[in-house]
Write a structure and sequence with these properties.
single chain; about 475 residues; mainly alpha; elongated
Length: about 475
Amino acid sequence: MDDLERALTCTLAPDTPYDIRASAQIFLDQVKSSADGWKLCLAKALQTSNQQIQFYCLQVVQEVIPRYNGLSTEEKVDLRRALITYLQKICSSQEKTSPFVKNKLGQLFALLFKLDFLTTWPTFIDDLLVAVCSADTNKDQHMAIVDMFLRILHSIDEEVVSLEVVRDRDEQKHNQDIKDKMRENAIPKIVDTWYNLLVTYNNHNEILKNVLQNIGDYIQWIDVSLIVSERFLSIFGNLLSNVEVRSDVLHCFYEIVNKGMYPKDKIQMLNLLRLHEFIAGISTEVNDDNALEFLLSVARLINISGGEVMRAMTKLYESDRDAFKFASDLLELYLPLLFKYMAHEDDEISETVAPFTRDYLLQILKKTATLTEAQDQHLTLLLQIIAHKIKYDEQYNFERYGEYEEATKEYRKTLSNIFKTITQIAPQKVAAFMGTRISTIPEQDTFSIEATLLLFLKVQKKGQNGKWKEETGKKGKRVEN
């Protein structure tokens, strides 16, 4: 054990006396600040089996990155070779490497990629792909290589693309040049590799999750047609039955839908994506917290998909009537899902699709002079959903106001606003619905009575000062027979 390892062992051991720990830290600080300190630490990372020491040494190496351009060409080559050797070491080791070590190594490779890809290391991605596609490694070793490949790609996204990091103009320009260069050759190869990994490791959930995370990371800036293709959609559909990775599939779908595109292109892409078909086959039963979280993700996907269709329709209404009609037809495929999730027994799931509901009603209010029969039926269904969902339930505590009661209050407010919009669209229908509702509620159903009175007050407020009858005659949408 040399001085460096002894000092590291002292600082890492919890029972090291204070004076010895202080002396060890002074020594380590001197190593870190020396010109060749990173070389000593890199060599130590290759030699030791102690993963805490490896992590510390990699951190020291990372600290040389800000002055990387000041290194000699020979030092840069030595650094690159040593990191590749270290990568080979942990991928071939029988001992399992800790995630924190692998993540740090992935970050180091990403930083080197950012510095060298456009200049001295244009084959960076190809070099990684050679290792991933090699047939000469055993299964465990290949899985380790794949794992590191995916971690490096994730770190590249964080270092080059992520909008969460504040970057100056020069760095933004540099990163854009990297993305442009990657789009030329590297990205199609990476996408093919993702597909092959999804096929090869279809029973290995950790790799599946990491591949799907990669796709979700990159979709915002790569050609969406590389992913929205029959081969990927088929795999995504199959993976939705895998409880361990289905939320990651939905994350990919969400990022695809959220991708910035021209309205007509977005509608065409959503049509190819066929999300309504995937979602229609998903059970809405909530039997545990995992199922609830998954259905919330489904609801978010329905909400953003419907919202994107509605926004496209708004932009296409005047400029492209054919595309508007195509978008309207696509909307009809999502509306059954909207009503299904709006009526879900869980209020949080229901509230998640409320923005889509609001957008749909505003579209009718602003763009439709005469209600179609289908729209009239939709309004009836929404009134029924609101009348049922706005009721208090047995869980609500009228004596002690807490988090659940606050959430219920906000949800009822959301439902009330949707109800008021329907009243603007079809006041006669709402009046008739409320009349029927009032006359059919059992006297012992106090929650239904309270909910009906609440809605009645909304109607009454709308018609205050004698305006209800006037609005019924002038603003109500006529139903098209």
